[in-house]
Each structure stands twice: as structure tokens, then as C-alpha cells.
Design a protein that fits this description.
This protein is of the alpha+beta class. It is globular and about 40 Å long.
Length: 152
Amino acid sequence: MSTPEKINLCIRSIGTEQDWRTLYELSFPRDERMSLEELDVMIKRQLVLVHRTTDSEGNLLCFSIVTPMSNFSLLAYIATDQTRRSSGVGSKHMKALIALLKKSYPTHRGLFLEIESTREVGLSQTEEVERKRRLAFYERLGCKRLLGADYL
């Protein structure tokens, strides 16, 4: 029987590591991400929080970027290393992130996130499958849809 891998779960980062930056650029299309320069400014001003999950050797497994707002937090980005997807690392990271945010922001209403529509007309079969898989991931973590609400 193999020993479970030791991981460093959801550790707050000062944002200077190259590993999450590389994964960020690989995981999100250019038109869906902020520039690294913009993120650097926001990280320095503590407008966004970067958390990293690494293996016992310090290799990045997953990262997230959260924006604390007035009475809620917004999950801006989360990505898991492509070789580690479907291994449970992303779920463990998210559960630890939620616990950290609850402790750090006890008056917040919750963690909000936004994903692409699974019902958009004209999606390729691959895009539709990826979006439905993403939705199922968040639903397994207990996320609920916020339907019929306008927001800015």
C-alpha cells in the first residue's frame, strides 16, 4: 500500500513565484485573464489574495486568486496543474480555501464565483463537456447557482 502524498495545502503567497504565473497563463485564454502586471499591483495592494498548494518538494499543484469584497469574496481564478487534474487536489485546495476565508472574513456572506454558461448556443462538444465538468466540480463542493440576480 502506498503512502499518501504529503501536500502543502492552500498556503498564502506573496505572489512572486513563477510557477503559478506560468500555470495562470496556460490555463486561461488571454481575453479571460488580467495581465500579470495588473495582478502584481493588486497583490501588492492586497486587493487580491494568491494561495498555492504544492507537493512535498514545493512543486505547484494548484493555485487560486480571490478578491475580498465588502461582504463577500470572489473567486477570480483557480487552476490545477494539467498532470494533476481529477486527482482531488483542486477539491482539497478549494475546501481549505473556503475554511481560510471563513476564518479571515467571518462577516462575509460567502465565496462567489462565475463560470461560463453550459447552455450557450454554438459550443463545440469539447467546450460543452469542459463547462459541464467545471459546473459539476463546483456543485460537488457545495456551490449553489445564483439565478435571476443582476450584478455589476
